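Q: I'm building a small set of examples for a reading group on sequence design. Run inverse folding on the following structure and report the sequence directly after it, with nothing in between.
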């Protein structure tokens, strides 16, 4: 991990530098959309209205599509909708094929609060790992989604 709380809080500038190096070194292993998002100049620019930092969770949807004669062939997808930090638009992150996820959200009474930081990495199989940290009033929630890729969409109000 590179820019999540444990690494970033000790050395903010160094953490982002190491993350950029990791993204460059692993460019060919990354899913296309995820890599483009991670290296974009705007994604971590907190002054941009389409940056997820400080956005609020509107909803999360987990879908399980089925096919086959008995609907026995199953695949999962996740979509997250956020209210942008400036409250002038919505951000949607869609994971078209999800392999695993973990939502650790202790103490979210009153909501998740702010999307603090997130990090996009790849595992040994070339699957996207997206870790998200939420900053709540008392405790932070952490989410981890392993997927084929992530699609980003900004919808101004």
């Amino acid at each position: 991990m590179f820019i999540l709380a444990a690494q970033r809080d000790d050395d903010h500038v160094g953490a982002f530098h190491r993350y950029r190096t990791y993204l460059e070194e692993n460019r060919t292993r990354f899913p296309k959309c995820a890599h483009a998002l991670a290296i974009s100049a705007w994604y971590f620019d907190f002054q941009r209205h389409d940056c997820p930092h400080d956005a609020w969770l509107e909803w999360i949807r987990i879908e399980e599509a089925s096919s086959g004669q008995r609907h026995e062939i199953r695949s999962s997808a996740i979509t997250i909708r956020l209210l942008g930090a400036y409250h002038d638009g919505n951000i949607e992150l869609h994971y078209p094929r999800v392999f695993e996820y973990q939502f650790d959200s202790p103490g979210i009474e009153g909501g998740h609060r702010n999307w603090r930081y997130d990090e996009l990495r790849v595992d040994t199989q070339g699957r996207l790992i997206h870790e998200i940290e939420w900053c709540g009033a008392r405790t932070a929630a952490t989410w981890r989604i392993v997927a084929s890729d992530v699609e980003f969409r900004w919808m101004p109000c």
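Strands lie at 56-67, 73-83, 89-104, 114-122, 128-135, 142-147, 151-156.
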